[in-house]
UniProtKB/TrEMBL annotation:
InterPro entries: EF-1-gamma_plant, Glutathione-S-Trfase_C-like, Glutathione-S-Trfase_C_sf, GST_C. Gene3D superfamilies: 1.20.1050.10. Signal peptide: none annotated. GO terms for molecular function: glutathione transferase activity. This is GST C-terminal domain-containing protein. It comes from Solanum tuberosum. The lineage of its organism: Eukaryota, Viridiplantae, Streptophyta, Embryophyta, Tracheophyta. Residues 27-144 form the GST C-terminal domain. It comes from the Eukaryota.
Length: 144
């Protein structure tokens, strides 16, 4: 499933949930933090994974220098994410939120298709967000 479609579906699904659902955070400040992480996920993680992956799949022209720049940008982004997750279980608050779900969706294609184990060994906590999203019974209960 296309990454943008996943994000769109998660937003559409969550719009049908009750307004005080914990996936939106427990306060307006947490909601704002969730939106910031969603923007970070889209612009820093998903975009760089796409810029790295699409030339390899033949959808764009492969330029080695451009790939180096994209990989460096993705490493910076994953480094920031790794630093945050090394001190926090979830991106926002103490429960799984929409930010975790969207970040997990955006990271999943990278882990499956382009990021090797040697690449991701620098970012051990980034893989945990995928495991948390995939195995959360609470998430499944909240989404329905």
């Amino acid at each position: 499933m296309d990454l943008f479609l996943r994000a769109m579906l998660s937003h559409a699904t969550l719009l049908n949930l009750k307004p005080n659902n914990p996936l939106f955070g427990s306060s307006l400040i947490e909601y704002a933090q969730i939106e910031q992480w969603n923007d970070f996920s889209a612009t820093e993680v998903d975009a760089n994974i796409g810029r790295w992956l699409y030339p390899r799949l033949g959808y764009r022209v492969y330029i080695p220098a451009a790939e180096e720049a994209v990989v460096a940008a993705l490493k910076r982004s994953l480094g920031a994410l790794n630093t945050h997750l090394s001190c926090n279980t979830y991106l926002v608050g103490h429960l799984i939120t929409l930010a975790d779900i969207i970040m997990g969706c955006n990271l999943s294609i990278g882990f499956r298709m382009i990021m090797t184990k040697s690449f991701t060994k620098e970012f051990p906590t980034c893989r945990e967000i995928l495991l948390d999203c995939g195995s959360s019974a609470k998430l499944l209960q909240d989404i329905g």
